[in-house]
């Protein structure tokens, strides 16, 4: 019998009360500049486009609208950076959960090429944004390394690498030998790997805070601790209600990703994604310890196991994360499992302290792709990054803006395909649990 996890469905303990909710304690919170003083919406105001959600998606949409001279208001339920954008792993990647070769098989080569180009564009956009706003967010364009845990996984990486180089002409990818992997990672667990020089790592909350500060300097209105509790249709558009006031707009953009169940206002999108808990831990500083030399290239690293584990450095600490079997809520047992995996992988770290433990929700979609689209004549959405949204959600704004202004999206599959309701949503917990349990079982028996 496989060892089924009790549950992987994230019941979202943060959501038992109405926002604003307390900030989570993360390494990012402890190492970012101080949070801006809360600026809740007070009174009634008018704008062209109202945006629900102050994460990267909401901010990039507001920036794109401002660049076109269109007035927008961002409404965030909690403190700024409370959502995934302030607590993620900071891995800047142009990957989609659906591979490019699979896209070529399902659609055609031009579609796969366009999606690949978008991924590269999105990763490069992070450097552009940081420069434009003068933000220091510890960004390193150091690429990523996929670490093969067994020979069959390495064969798939090799096939993927050949395909990317041969068919898409992407010379930024290459295969590394077991020796190179040991030198790169400090772990002897890997029989090879695939290096991808696109992308890198960033401090996600420094990025978010820098963007908010820069956008406010530019006069863009961003309100936090202002949950949208209801959306009313008016003669000329919509009226968004918050505890402190209302916003009248022509259009509303839903940019709530995995957190659409905070209030009933975003119910139209809530059932289009499945929230999945992703957790991470951080060690004490490694300087002067046996772990000091680990991950010297400062890339991001992912394992090829189905219940994927990933790691990176931040300053001189190691961050170790994973998705899947983390129980209904954050629990000491769930984080202990992650710690055991980290110490198994890196025995050099034995005896060192884990100083931070935190988690958040990623939004999975049925087709493993992010989506932007229109719900009706007044509502637009962008969401479903499937755990790889740092680059894409910061890139997507101009496409969401175009939709909100009545145009059509040029975001290839993300804008062309519908984002349907998740079937059997009320029993999604069972589905997620079964899939995750099955994956763990296959990993455990080496399949
Ligand atoms: C633990 C974790 C690790 C991750 N690691 C990575 C990584 O390393 N690399 C990567 O590429 N991606 C990663 N991701 C995914 C990435 O962080 C997300 O895809 C991205 O941040 C999504 O941004 P967003 O703006 O769409 O959503 P969010 O940042 O989640 O913002 C949505 C916001 O909407 C607000 N909201 C909800 N309802 C309302 C309402 N009614 N009124 C007002 N506001 C509302 C919420 O408070 C929230 O702040 C990770 C995610 C998590 C949770």
From TrEMBL:
GO terms for cellular component: cytoplasm. Pfam families: DAO (PF01266). Residues 48-403 form the FAD dependent oxidoreductase domain. Residues 1-37 are annotated as: Disordered. It comes from the Bacteria. InterPro entries: FAD-dep_OxRdtase, FAD/NAD-bd_sf. The keyword Acetylation does not apply. One of its GO terms (molecular function) is oxidoreductase activity. This is Glycine/D-amino acid oxidase. Keywords: Oxidoreductase.
């Amino acid at each position: 019998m496989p060892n089924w996890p009790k549950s992987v469905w994230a019941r979202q303990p943060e959501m038992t009360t109405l926002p604003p909710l307390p900030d989570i304690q993360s390494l990012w919170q402890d190492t970012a500049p101080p949070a801006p003083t809360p600026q809740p919406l007070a009174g009634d105001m008018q704008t062209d486009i109202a945006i629900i959600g102050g994460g990267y998606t909401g901010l990039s949409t507001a920036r794109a609208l401002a660049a076109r001279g269109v007035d927008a208001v961002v409404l965030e339920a909690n403190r700024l950076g409370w959502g995934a954008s302030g607590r993620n792993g900071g891995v800047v990647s142009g990957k989609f959960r659906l591979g490019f070769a699979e896209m070529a098989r399902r659609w055609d080569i031009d579609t796969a090429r366009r999606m690949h180009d978008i991924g590269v564009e999105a990763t490069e956009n992070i450097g552009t944004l940081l420069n434009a706003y003068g933000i220091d967010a510890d960004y390193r364009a150091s690429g990523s390394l996929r670490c093969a845990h067994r020979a069959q996984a390495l064969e798939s990486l090799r096939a993927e690498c050949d395909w990317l180089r041969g068919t898409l002409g992407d010379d930024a990818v290459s295969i590394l030998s077991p020796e190179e992997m040991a030198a790169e990672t400090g772990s002897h667990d890997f029989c090879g790997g695939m290096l991808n020089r696109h992308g890198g790592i960033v401090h996600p909350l420094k990025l978010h805070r820098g963007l908010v500060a820069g956008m406010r300097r530019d006069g863009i209105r961003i309100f936090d601790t202002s949950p949208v509790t209801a959306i009313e249709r008016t003669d000329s558009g919509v009226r968004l209600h918050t505890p402190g006031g209302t916003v009248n707009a022509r259009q509303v953009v839903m940019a709530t990703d995995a957190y659409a169940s905070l209030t009933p206002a975003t119910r139209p999108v809530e059932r289009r994604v499945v929230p999945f808990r992703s957790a991470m831990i951080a060690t004490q500083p490694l300087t002067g310890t046996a772990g000091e030399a680990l991950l010297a290239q400062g890339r991001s690293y992912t394992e090829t196991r189905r219940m994927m584990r990933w790691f990176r450095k931040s300053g001189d600490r190691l961050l170790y994360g994973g998705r899947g079997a983390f129980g209904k809520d954050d629990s000491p047992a769930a984080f202990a499992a992650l710690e055991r995996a980290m110490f198994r992988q890196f025995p050099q770290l034995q005896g060192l302290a884990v100083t931070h433990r935190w988690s958040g929700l990623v939004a999975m979609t049925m087709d493993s792709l992010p989506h932007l689209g229109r719900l009706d004549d007044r509502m637009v959405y962008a969401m479903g990054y499937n755990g790889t949204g740092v680059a894409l959600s910061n890139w997507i704004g101009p496409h969401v803006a175009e939709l909100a202004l009545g145009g059509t999206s040029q975001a290839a599959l993300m804008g062309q395909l519908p984002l349907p309701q998740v079937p059997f949503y009320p029993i999604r917990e069972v589905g997620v649990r079964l899939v995750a349990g099955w994956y763990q079982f296959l990993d455990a028996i080496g399949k």
